[in-house]
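Format is sequence with structure; example below:
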Amino acid sequence: MPRSSSVADFLFEPHAPVTIPIARGGLFAVRRVYCVGRNYAEHVVEMGNDTRDPPFFFGKPADAIVVGGADIPYPSQTSDFHHEIELVVAIGKDGADIASGDALNHVYGYAVGLDMTRRDVQAQAKKAGRPWDMAKGFDHSAPIGTIEPASAIGHPDSGAITLSVNGVERQRGDLADQIWNVPDTIAYLSTFVALKAGDIIMTGTPAGVSAVVRGDVLEGAIAGIGTVRTRIA
């Protein structure tokens, strides 16, 4: 039998787990962050892409998550820093090759999140056919509100999703406008990777993405789910 590890066995003390508060109490420990690209038709069009193309997936590191309405810094290496309001799905049950009809049984709950983006860095990466990691997966790039358990709110498949900056609305859509709904997204993603309890999926943004600057206050909401707030420090 292998012996168990202690802190003394590590070269340095392991980092604390990344957690998201649960609205009804407790913490959701995050394993991986998956993000869906191009999942609202109007946003697909505003970004110059074809709505016939299926969504695709990219990732953010778990420690890019910011909770509690904390400020986020304006990141380096960009002069075109954009907001994207998104529905966040919290996975509570492991599974691979999940059937769409069974997918919601793998959902623990839902939250509201922001996929913050270095848009100019993303554009350069697209032009060169390179990965988006530094455009999407940088520090503090995923502010997320509290998670509402599905056992309390059900599985919303419609409802307004909005984002305001300094009190002025910039993004508005409806969850019903998603090209791929939550069950189909989970089913498709699970053909590429085995999903585990602790994973979250950021499900794409409606139209209206635009730049923010230092001092801006971002406030997002999804009807029946909750809110997210942050300020660009």
